[in-house]
Each structure stands twice: as C-alpha cells, then as structure tokens.
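Entry 14. Ran structure prediction on the chain below.
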Amino acid sequence: MRAPAALFEPIGLGDLTLPNRMVMAPMSRARAAADGTPSPLMADYYAQRASAGLIVAEGTHPAAAGAIGPDAPGLFTDAHQDGWARVADRVHAAGGRVFLQLMHAGRLAHSGFLPAGVRPVAPSAVAADTLVHTPGGRVPAVTPDPLTEDGIRRLIDDFVHAACRATAAGLDGVEIHAANGYLLHQFLAENANLRTDRWGGDTEGRIRLTVAITRAVAATVGPHRVGVRISPSNPFGDLTENDPYGTYPALVRALAPLRLAYLHHGETGTELDAALRELWPTALMVTPLPADQDKPEAAADALARGADLVSFGRDFLANPDLVTRCRIGAGLNEIRPNGFYGGGAAGYTDYPSLDPVHPGPVGRR
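Output, structure tokens:
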C-alpha cells in the first residue's frame, strides 16, 4: 500500500518547517564510546536517515546515573557535546532536522555499567521485577536509591544543562522522555512511586517532576525547541499505572499552557487517546497501534485520528530511505534481529537503500 499523500505534506514544528510528517523515533543503539561520547558511526547512521521529516535521536542521559546500558550516549561533558555537534552537522548537511531525546534510566540503570560509586536512583527504593542489560549479560535490576529533595533539584538542573548543551551543539531541540518505564515514567506510576512528599502521593504529586523539568527546560531553551514523550499504561520496566485516565489528562493539562513544539504520544488503543488529542494545543506526534500493522496503513489511520506527525521505529533502522519507499510504495527491507538491548532490532547501517541522497552502507557494530 502506498502511503497517504498527507504524510508527505510539510508542517511547521516550532520554528522549523518539516518537509514531511514521518518522524524517526528514538531507538537506543549502544554505539557511543564507553564514556558516552557519540561515535562517528552515529553521525553516519543519522545522516543516512535525514530524509525523515524529523529525527528524534536516541535516549541520551543528562547525568552519569541515568545511563540505560553500556555504550549509551550522554550529554553532560564537553566531549559529549562535541560528539553530538558532529551528529547535528552531518544531519543538517544532508538536509535533515534532529531533536535529541533526554532520557534518565532511573531504576533500570545498573552498577555493572555505571561509573564507580554511582548508584541507580528512582522515586522510591523499589526494584523493578525485570532484567537489565550489562556488559556481562542480562541481570536482575537492583534496588535503587530514592531521590532526596536535593537530588531532585540537581536532576532538574541536569536536564536543563543537557538541553543547553544540545542547542549549543546545533541540535534543533530536545524531547523529554517521560515514557517507556524510565525515570520520569517511574514517578508517574503508582507501583514505583511510593513517596508521600510533594513528589508523590496523589496525581498532582506524581506528575510534578515531569512538569517541573519540562517547564525549566522550556524556559531555558524555548518551548519551540521542546517536546515530551508519554506512553500511558505501558508496563515496560515493571510499571503499573492504576489510573491513566486521571494521570495523563492532568499531565497534559499542566503542560499545554507551555505551548511546546509537540507531544509524542504512544497510543493505547483506548478512548484515552482521543481525550489527550483533544487537550493538546500544538503538534501531536503519534506512535500508532497496532505495531505490526502495515506501515502506510498505520500512518493513514493515525492521521485520520488527528495526529500531525507519525513516528516510525524499527522500520527506519532497516530502511534508511523509509520516506522514499513509503512515497513510491516500494517494499521494505526485512528487519534482522540482533539481540541488542534497546529493542532487539537490527540497527546495522548496511541495509540496501533506494535513495541515492542517503545511501548505505557505512559499516557495522
């Protein structure tokens, strides 16, 4: 099936004009240096996919304790900033636009890959009943240290400083990751956030950190350079949300006055999706359900439901020229699983391309 024409229409996003509505979703690839500095291979990888209307680059930790696994990129040192500047330069030279996802792993971090003396942190001292990836293989998650009031204030500053480094590196903006089982999502979820202070307890308390970080980042780099990602009811990382119909409308109402660049919403397939669309005032980016649906069909359905942008994940890994393929109705390359911790999908850059502007291959890792 050929993708709907509306998917290839331009759209304004903050102060950017996107040439199409196809977004490359952030996907961890474990290609940074051991210290978190983005590698030349990462610059090649993102430049190959610059025909996306927008790239949201992989989850990047704003502080040492936030790393999701070995060789995950960071953005809190000069070397990190220089590495991301090379990525931004390559993507822009290829005609693309790129935001960076700021992600803190929280209780899904592990001492097996964190620097010496750095411990995982979370809203409460509750270990996730799941396995995490370390250099020695998958191991049970550890019990994290609960964040103190001072620790929360430092965390907010960490996100702000990382966002400043992102814009200084030439990236077009940042996405605050409050989804998929990581730290901000842990604060939203009742089974991970057992706090009784102002950062927990009721709905207002559980959404407070996400709102505080987003406000602080938007006030510093500009709301037009900031997006937020949510995934209501996503159980990844052993999270349980008892009241998503209370939590997420409250969160979206609190964020709406900021007039951010976009909200990145992982659909639930329930009436909550339409309720959040109704509440959000700027661009709505959707990761559509079902995940195994024909991609052009999924995009058409998402746009018909009111999405402004549609994000694609593993299909962009296997198809650097996904935009071209969807535009002309060409077949997609088969995704080759490789057991990688960030989603179990192949991320090699040697997939064949139909697009002479953004060709492959450039090598493997």
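The radius of gyration is 19 Å. Will compare against last week's run tomorrow.
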